[in-house]
Structure formats: structure tokens, C-alpha cells
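Support request from a user on the community tier.

User writes: "When I paste my C-alpha cells into the form, the page sometimes reloads and wipes my input. The last time it worked, I copied everything first. Here is what I submitted, just in case something in the input itself triggers the reload:"
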């Protein structure tokens, strides 16, 4: 029997013992996970430095802290989430009592990407454990140091019939996807999302797909430009732009364009130093293939800021491009790097039409104090989630389910939603006779 088949069989057998359904078992598992992460913290930071050149502060702030926050929130609320919920019964059945019982699906598969390789493997795992499932994690092969520590950490704290890690390239995913899982949670590109969903369809396995896309940021003429510059620079250049919810491109009111570009330039210097290519803590591009894909975009417009790169170190400095159009190559795919194309507008309506015609974005950011405009954009444009007068921060809230829509994904997680997404909600109507 091959490794994937054997593992799924072992996990399913273990799941049927019923142990993972016990709430104390789940709480203990989450506590073990917390201890394991604390013990491995330095190794996690070292691995993120080795794979992506993330600084210790960035590794902690954008990966470890988020996972620990989700863990603590789950530990605090698990009893309440897992409790059966009574709901009203139709008046035609006065003797009926209606109850919804959350129950685990069984054996879950979690496939993770490379850009936040720790957070995006362990974040979903918290939901899978909290809901009472067994789980197999497949980390990304493009971040080998994090992949190895994920294996070591999980192997140290959990028996493999409960939680296991299978490392490897596409073949490892393909072999896993042939097996029948009870839930698949995939984070990655839209193209691979399609492959995952097709494979899941063979077994009628439900899926969550956390995908990517081109997320616009809109800056209106009444916005506080200093704050906009700070928040755009943080959101765009964190992890060198390799963030699924990074603002992909900017739409700026023509009256404030020049001032905003100056402020973005000043903010980049303030945050990353006068010469980002010399900044030892600026993350690099994950590999040469992505570097070459990105560096081609640098000629798709006029360089307003940055534009330099060092291929040997896989670094591209934060770059802002003007004079782009909707047909430019840089506007045909998710950029996923430190390059920010900027459009100007005098009338936002044609820009909104353009966004609506394109695949639904994972995120949208709008900077304005004008509440009518806020309502208009929220009404008119469908997107996964986003912020008004900020970037990224919607994904750090335990109370906002995080996910995409259309080509940017389906399903969501974080906070209670992570528990719910890995649970079947069993509805039962009980009559007294
Ligand atoms: P990817 O789709 O190339 O890979 C993701 C995972 O799928 C990896 O573990 C990989 O080994 C596996 N995989 C790759 N090809 C496969 C195939 N043919 N069959 C089965 N499995 C396969 O994505 P990536 O490059 O690692 O990540 C970048 C993408 O992920 C971007 O589009 C980004 O926007 C998206 N993303 C989305 C979120 C989100 O939360 N919505 C978060 C992070 C990244």
C-alpha cells in the first residue's frame, strides 16, 4: 500500500475509535500544539529566514503570533462552539425539540502554500483539531526548511494516526488527492484550486479553497494621504508583496496622485531604509522562476519609485509603476511581488465597472471618509473581504470570517469559522412520541 493510502486508512481507523471527538482530547491536543510551537519558536523563525529571508520580527508578527492568537481563541471558546445548539421548532409540531449538533467530518487534508508557510499550515490545523478531526498536512515544497520543521514538530507531539505531515512536491499532493478524505482545505493558486476541486469531486469531498487574485486599493481625493501611504506600504511590501491579500494595484484620484506617490516614496525609505537592496531584512522572492516572472513586469509602465533588483539574491526593491493600462501583462495575473501599478481616475465609476468585469478579488481596500462612496463600492463590488481606510487588518480579526469568492476562493475560516468549517452541523428534530 502506498504511503498516502496507508496513512488515510490508519487515520480513519483511529477516527472511528471516537477519541478525537472527546472535548478534553481536543483541548489537550491544542495545548500540546501551543507548547510545541513555543518550543520550536526559534526554529520557526530560522526556517522562515532560510526560506524567504523573513526577519525575526516579521516571522513572529505575521506568522507565529497569528497562529498563537487563533489557538488561544479556540481554547477559550471550544466548549461553547462544540455544544449542541437548540433552535425553535415549527409551530405545527408543538412536541418537537430541534437541535443542531456540530460533529467532525473525519479525516481532513490541509494543503499549504509557501508564502506564509507556517501560518497557513497551522492555522487551518487549529480548526481541524478543534472540530475533532484527524488531519494530514501537505506543506509547500518551495519552503523546505518550514516543511521539515512542520514534519518534525507534528511528529514530536502527535501520533501519525491522528495528525501527520506528508512532505514532497506536486506528486505528493497528487497521490494524496487520489484518496478519499472527508474534508479538503486548500490554500494556493486559483489554477491548482481547480485541480483540487476536480479531485475532490471524485469522492464528493467538501472543500474550502483559499485562493488568490488581484486585489485593488482605491484612494479617493478626501483620504488622509499620510495614513494611506503608511498602510499601503505596509500591506503591499510585507513579505516583499508575496501576500495573498496584498493590494495588487492602486486606483488613485488624479488630484492626489502626485502627493501620494511622494508620500509612498518617503514611507518606503522610512520603513526599509534609503537603499532597500542593502536591507538585510527585506524578504526575497521565493525562487528564480517567480523572480523572472516578476522582473518582466518592471517594463510594463513608467517607474515612479524603485525598479532595481539583484537576481543572485532574488531581491526586487519596492517598485511603483505609472502609465499602466488594463491590458498590460502586469494587469493580467496576480502580481504576488513588490510591484505596485498605479492608475489615476477623475470618475471612479468606469474603474468600478472594470473591477466588476474581472474575476472577483480576494480583498478590496478603499480609502475615503465619504460614506456614500463607501456604501456604493460595498454594494457594487463583490470581493472576499477587505478594509475601509486600512489594508490587511480584516484578516487578523477572530470575528471576521476570512476567505474569497468566485475565483478568489470558496469557504472561509478564522475564529469560530475555523471550527465551523471543519464541522458538519447535524440537524435533529426530536418528538416526544
Ligand atoms: P500553489 O497553488 O502553486 O501551491 C499550493 C500547494 O499546492 C503546494 O503545497 C503545492 O505543492 C501544491 N500543488 C502545486 N501544484 C499542484 C498540483 N498540480 N496538484 C496538486 N497540488 C499541487 O500556490 P503557491 O504558489 O504555493 O501559493 C501562492 C498562491 O496562493 C497565490 O495565488 C496566493 O494568492 C494564494 N494564497 C492564498 C491565500 C488565501 O488565504 N486566500 C493565502 C496564501 C496564498
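"...and here is what came back when it finally went through:"
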Amino acid at each position: 500500500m502506498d504511503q498516502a493510502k496507508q496513512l488515510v486508512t490508519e487515520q480513519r481507523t483511529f477516527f472511528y475509535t471516537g477519541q478525537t471527538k472527546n472535548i478534553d482530547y481536543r483541548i489537550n491536543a491544542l495545548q500540546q500544539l501551543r507548547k510545541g510551537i513555543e518550543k520550536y519558536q526559534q526554529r520557526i523563525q530560522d526556517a522562515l529566514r532560510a526560506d524567504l529571508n523573513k526577519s525575526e520580527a516579521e516571522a513572529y508578527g505575521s506568522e507565529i503570533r497569528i497562529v498563537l492568537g487563533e489557538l488561544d481563541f479556540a481554547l477559550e471558546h471550544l466548549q461553547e462552539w462544540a455544544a449542541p445548539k437548540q433552535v425553535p421548532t415549527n409551530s405545527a409540531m408543538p412536541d418537537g425539540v430541534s437541535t443542531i449538533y456540530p460533529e467532525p467530518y473525519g479525516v481532513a487534508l490541509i494543503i499549504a502554500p509557501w508564502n506564509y508557510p507556517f501560518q497557513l499550515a497551522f492555522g487551518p490545523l487549529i480548526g481541524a483539531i478543534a472540530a475533532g478531526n484527524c488531519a494530514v498536512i501537505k506543506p509547500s515544497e518551495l519552503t523546505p526548511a518550514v516543511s521539515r520543521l512542520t514534519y518534525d514538530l507534528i511528529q514530536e507531539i502527535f501520533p501519525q494516526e491522528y495528525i501527520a505531515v506528508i512532505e514532497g512536491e506536486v506528486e505528493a499532493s497528487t497521490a494524496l488527492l487520489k484518496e478519499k478524505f472527508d474534508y479538503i482545505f486548500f490554500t494556493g493558486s486559483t489554477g491548482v484550486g481547480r485541480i483540487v476541486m476536480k479531485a475532490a469531486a471524485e469522492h464528493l469531498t467538501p472543500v474550502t479553497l483559499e485562493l488568490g487574485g488581484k486585489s485593488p486599493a482605491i484612494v479617493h481625493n478626501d483620504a488622509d494621504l499620510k495614513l494611506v501611504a503608511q498602510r499601503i506600504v505596509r500591506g503591499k511590501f510585507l513579505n516583499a508583496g508575496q501576500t495573498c491579500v496584498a493590494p495588487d494595484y492602486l486606483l488613485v484620484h488624479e488630484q492626489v496622485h502626485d502627493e501620494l506617490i511622494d508620500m509612498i516614496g518617503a514611507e518606503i525609505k522610512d520603513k526599509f531604509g534609503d537603499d532597500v537592496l542593502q536591507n538585510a531584512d527585506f524578504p526575497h522572492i521565493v525562487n528564480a522562476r517567480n523572480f523572472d516572472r516578476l522582473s518582466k513586469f518592471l517594463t510594463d509602465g513608467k517607474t515612479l519609485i524603485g525598479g532595481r533588483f539583484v537576481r543572485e539574491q532574488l531581491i526586487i526593491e519596492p517598485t511603483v509603476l505609472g502609465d499602466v493600462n488594463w491590458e498590460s501583462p502586469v494587469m493580467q495575473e496576480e502580481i504576488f511581488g513588490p510591484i505596485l501599478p498605479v492608475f489615476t481616475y477623475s470618475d471612479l465609476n468606469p474603474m468600478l465597472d472594470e473591477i466588476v468585469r474581472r474575476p472577483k478579488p480576494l480583498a478590496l481596500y478603499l480609502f475615503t471618509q465619504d460614506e456614500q462612496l463607501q456604501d456604493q463600492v460595498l454594494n457594487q463590488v463583490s470581493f472576499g473581504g477587505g478594509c475601509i481606510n486600512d489594508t490587511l487588518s480584516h484578516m487578523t480579526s477572530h470575528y471576521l470570517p476570512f476567505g474569497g469568492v468566485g475565483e478568489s476562493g470558496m469557504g472561509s475560516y478564522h475564529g469560530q469559522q475555523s471550527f465551523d468549517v471543519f464541522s458538519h452541523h447535524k440537524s435533529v428534530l426530536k418528538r416526544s412520541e
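Agent notes: The reload is a front-end session timeout and is unrelated to the input. The domain at 3-211+406-431 is CATH 3.40.605.10 (Aldehyde Dehydrogenase; Chain A, domain 1). The longest strand covers residues 96-104. Escalated to web team.
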